[in-house]
Design goal:
D-Maltodextrin-Binding Protein, domain 2; magnesium; ATP phosphoribosyltransferase; alpha/beta; 286 residues; five-stranded mixed beta sheet; nucleotide-binding; globular; six-stranded mixed beta sheet; Alpha-Beta Plaits; 28% helix; ATP binding; ATP phosphoribosyltransferase activity
Length: 286
């Protein structure tokens, strides 16, 4: 059975998702730049649609699963099964106001204020939970300009670094939602489909687990093993293997964080380590 996976058709998230699938061995093979579908090899086919439309495609059964932002999943309000966080496209949906507005926190928003957003459902729900009566002004883009045009008093908009908001004279006053790319599925999928999607989760998860990790191998003196265990904790401690010619050395192998590799190599060297080798990891299944 060929499973259809809805993927974003353009933008940075589209590129990052394609790269992730390629690294997981599910190469996105398109016939042209404007192709609407692509083979992912084996049991999967990609269909390319707007990221905002993916929750609808999946909920309606046009696709068995899809990848899109958690903000868009929540805005759609459809009943979907959350399978995994792909850790891509991290951002925040925030409330922001003009610097000179006097609004420093969400509680400063007064009843009757107009709030511009591309996320009217999430905006309405957020203020309703707080017991604040506001008027939502739906916009389709360039949300940050709305207060300067007198269209709205404040905005609810996506940001990753906050730089665009600051550039437009706005400051964050509250976070509505933390978002990232998620793999979601149709709740009506049968057992066979769910089993295949579990295999997809394993493939994607193994790539994500390997990111930011390095595999270290070195020959170290046997008498230094207690201290080597402190340097190479690994996933469950280092793997220790006898060197064929015997002697005073053993080989140790471990997975370590990439950001710690500089100190790790120097520590192994100070313990008498030789033949130190560091390699990248493509996939990691714990």
């Amino acid at each position: 059975m060929l499973l259809k996976i809805a993927l974003p058709n353009k933008g940075r998230l589209s590129e990052e998702v394609r790269e992730l699938f390629n690294e997981a061995g599910l190469e996105v093979r398109v016939r042209g730049d404007r192709a609407l579908t692509a083979s992912l090899g084996g049991e999967f086919e990609a269909i390319f649609v707007r990221a905002r439309d993916i929750p609808e495609f999946v909920a309606d059964g046009a696709a068995h699963a899809g990848v899109t932002g958690w903000d868009l999943v929540n805005e759609a309000g459809r009943h979907l099964e959350h399978l995994m966080d792909l850790e891509l496209g991290r951002c925040r949906l925030v409330v922001a106001a003009r610097e000179e507005s006097g609004i420093g926190q969400a509680s400063d928003v007064r009843d009757g204020m107009r709030v511009a957003s591309c996320f009217p459902r999430l905006t309405r729900d957020y203020f309703a939970r707080r017991g604040q009566r506001i008027t939502v002004v739906p916009v389709s883009g360039a949300t940050e300009i709305a207060p300067h045009l007198g269209i709205a008093d404040i905005v609810v908009d996506l940001t990753s670094t906050g730089s665009t908001l600051k550039m437009n004279g706005l400051r964050e006053v509250a976070t509505v939602l933390e978002s990232s790319a998620r793999l979601v599925a149709c709740q009506a999928n049968d057992a066979e489909v769910r089993g295949t999607l579990d295999e997809l989760k394993l493939a994607l998860g193994s790539v994500l687990a390997a990111r930011g990790k390095r595999y270290v191998m070195a020959n170290v003196p046997k008498e230094m093993l207690p201290r080597v265990r402190e340097v190479l904790p690994g996933l469950n401690g280092p793997t220790v293997v006898d060197v064929m010619d015997g002697g005073r050395f053993v080989a140790v192998h471990a997975v370590v964080p990439a950001k710690a590799i500089y100190r790790t190599v120097n520590a192994l060297k100070s313990l008498g380590g030789e033949g130190i080798l560091v390699t990248r990891i493509e996939r990691l299944v714990a």
